[in-house]
Amino acid sequence: MATVLVAEDDPDHQRLIAGVISRLGHHVTVAGDGRAALLSAAHRVPDLVVADVDMPELDGLQLCRALREDPVLGAVPVVLVTAMALPDDRLQRDSGAAAVIRKPFTLHELSGALAPHLAAASAAADGPDAPAEQAGLDPEFVSALLRSIDSGVAVCDAAGRIILLNPVLRGFFGEDSAAVPLKEWAERFSLRHHDGSELHADDLPLLRALAGEVVEHAGLLATDREGRPRWLTINARPVRDHHGAVAGAVAAVHDVTAEYRSRIYQACKNEVLKALAESRSAAEARGKVVRTVGATLGWRYVRLWLVDPVTDRLRPEATYAGPDERPLPVPASMARGRGLAGLCWQRGELIWVPDIHADGAPILPEVVSATDCRAAGAVPVLSGEHVTGVMTFFSYDPQEPEPALALLLSGIAGSVGAHLEQHRADDLAQHLAAATDEYIALVGHELRTPLTSISAYTQLLAEAPELTGELREMAEVVDRNSRRLRYLVEQLLDLAALDAGHLGLNLGEVDLTSVVTAAVDAVREPAAGRRIAVEADLSPGVQLVGDADRLRQVADGLLDNAVKFSRDDSAVTVRLTGDPEAVVLTVSDTGIGLPGDDRAALFRRLYRGDNARHTGIPGNGLGLALCRAVVERHHGTITLSAHPPGGTTVTVRLPRHRG
């Protein structure tokens, strides 16, 4: 039986804690604040102190420190009770407490939290040679309590003999595990550190505590009796007698497998997303994904199969094998419904195979005979609702269906499917763009030759003195339209070359203020014919590195558009500003405006907005596309926005210097 000092200023909580300890068969002394508790401990040294953190006179943390500084009371373990939001490990680190119990708690939770510390204190109070049954506890009550605790509890005496082992640990390690000497536990039960490295006998947390060490959050990797890996976290402390000598040790064992796997799964997801983002091709992405999944989750084999649209069969596209693993036999292709991958393809859902050697397991016989793996699984790779591939995996450890892992695999497969679909779309877009450029170049070449002949002969006709007035007018119409068509062809070819990167920029220091001023002067005359005022607000001496001719092309194009789409008796406003990093050119009109859906599309070649087509305003849909191409070649941006109360504002941002 242990003597326990309860320091709690709340009368209800004081009675509750004292009642639980008394029911466990221990003697209780109570104090209403920290100072009274310290005086009580000095009068009679307790085997255990249970103290509230928030108390008058002397709070629980101060009480704990005062006990630690006292040469007689320094070895007395303290359990803190608190409603504070500080992390448990910080409270324990700052105060040296053995444990922290959070408020609010139920009677069951309080009993479970105090039980291992009371058992250790009782063992120390009764001496190292007293068995558990002689420790003054009610055996039936203690047995029932230990059965109700979810965590494992182990207590040993000074000789290293286990005197208490609750049902959780006996169920995990076996009913006869209490009889196994602690020195043999690491080898007998194949215990390892969390990272899988070897655990030496003296590294066992209970033996470290028996040597006088306070062990917090020690990580162990164990295998349960079904062969499944379990990650454990252990807190262990020495139990000292009234003279300060180590009389035994107590350990609380927590199964943190779910939390550990959750961290591993999150790390796997992050690494997969990183691999996809950094891959420059679909083939590179496939290889990185299977390597990441296999290495992070500890699987020995991971294989990605993709559906061949020509043969309608699965073909292996990427494979990962763990270190020193002999390769598995891989068929050149897999039919729908055949083997693990084919069955997953057929069903379109995640498949678990806990035992690949079981009768009816959907694993090819040649694969089963070639591996010592125990479990396998497969997850479909989807594009929308269509299965485009399957990812299979094999593991030495038993792998039962697990919701968190299923969610991870489905998410990874979805990311892979989206990434592959994006690559296919990008490849298609590149081929389409290349084909479009080739077509434009071909058409441009084929048009230039007849246009040259048409223009030349039209000019010859116009110079003929015998040409009558009506025929001369017809010749002038032909000449005017041939020039317009030739201009359109030149713009198309120019735009295609800019987009393809075939045309270089003649870079140099450019006075953009002078360039825009010249463009404004050029547009004033046609604007004046419709009584459109061109108002310019240009900062002087705005300099940048660029191609002066191309930037003039942008200024001309934006101003021509603004005047063309403005109403008579209106105004066009041009502004040019700059800062040390960039320059901003805006051109605003009060014209017909543009629908919101058209804004992004207006920068595509040959596109004209609905309102422009229906008003009869002439245009070919190339002006803004050319401006966009030139601006982007200067590493700038061009955007459209509504200009209240009506009209449009075009904003061009250009860097002053090229990086």
TrEMBL record:
Annotated protein name in UniProt: histidine kinase
Localization annotation: Cell membrane
SUPFAM superfamilies to which the protein is assigned, alphabetical: ATPase domain of HSP90 chaperone/DNA topoisomerase II/histidine kinase (SSF55874), CheY-like (SSF52172), GAF domain-like (SSF55781), Homodimeric domain of signal transducing histidine kinase (SSF47384), PYP-like sensor domain (PAS domain) (SSF55785)
Domain Histidine kinase: 442-658
Keyword Transferase (UniProt): yes
PAC domain segment(s): 216-268
PROSITE patterns: HIS_KIN (PS50109), PAC (PS50113), RESPONSE_REGULATORY (PS50110)
Catalytic activity: ATP + protein L-histidine = ADP + protein N-phospho-L-histidine
Keywords, comma-separated and alphabetical: Kinase, Phosphoprotein, Transferase, Two-component regulatory system
EC number: 2.7.13.3
Pfam families per record: GAF_2 (PF13185), HATPase_c (PF02518), HisKA (PF00512), PAS_4 (PF08448), Response_reg (PF00072)
Coiled-coil region(s): none
GO-annotated cellular components: plasma membrane
4-aspartylphosphate: modified positions: 52
Enzyme's top EC category: transferase
Domain Response regulatory intervals: 3-118
Species annotation: Pseudosporangium ferrugineum
GO molecular function: phosphorelay sensor kinase activity
Annotated InterPro entries: CheY-like_superfamily (IPR011006), GAF (IPR003018), GAF-like_dom_sf (IPR029016), HATPase_C_sf (IPR036890), HATPase_dom (IPR003594), His_kinase_dom (IPR005467), HisK_dim/P_dom (IPR003661), HisK_dim/P_sf (IPR036097)
